[in-house]
Amino acid sequence: MQHLIIFTRYPEPGTTKTRLIPALGAEGAAKFHRQMTEKTVKMVREFAASYPVSTEIRYTGGNLALMQAWLGVDLRYSLQGSGDLGDRLRESFREAFELKKTAVMAIGTDCLDLSLEILSEAFDQLKQQDIILGPADDGGYYLIGLSRLFPEVFSGISWGSSEVFQQTLTVCQQLDLLVGFLPQLADIDRPEDLK
């Protein structure tokens, strides 16, 4: 079974989308994050209804009861855990592969243009590639998929910088991995992205 993980956080004002607070205010940034997450979850539910994939929400902030009250009790929830984004991604992939998942993919909730077609293409490509990357306009990525665990792709990365995609690619080249690419899309992280 293939596996799709959504990385998100409980939309608490002041702790959510903090880089957007100067433009939207704490309440506005949290509301924006809430809407983006709900849109992503709706799309993933549609995808899972027609594609052989298990899904999971990895969250930070709030608690299980708050997450279920917000997004529903029918979803599988896990805490993201501790460490930087790389530590948390590596752990979520490791756990999924330990559960005998055949291909694992992680997405965030910042990409408005992520579609059912792109998710489908990503899983299709993972049948031939070691890793799939969806590059974001800001130098990061909106999607990463692995055919098996390569923990190195989450180490030594300057998370939150414009170097994330390039640094990840460099690690892939060092490991001689077969890399597949998805269309480059925009992530909404900073006030200038809102346009």
UniProtKB/TrEMBL annotation:
Determine the domain of life of the protein's source. Answer: Bacteria
Q: Transmembrane region positions?
A: none
Which Pfam families would you find in this protein's record?
A: DUF2064
Q: Which PANTHER family match?
A: GLYCOSYLTRANSFERASE, SLL1095 PROTEIN
Q: What is this protein called?
A: Glycosyltransferase
The species is: Lyngbya aestuarii BL J
Q: What is the lineage of its organism?
A: Bacteria, Bacillati, Cyanobacteriota, Cyanophyceae, Oscillatoriophycideae
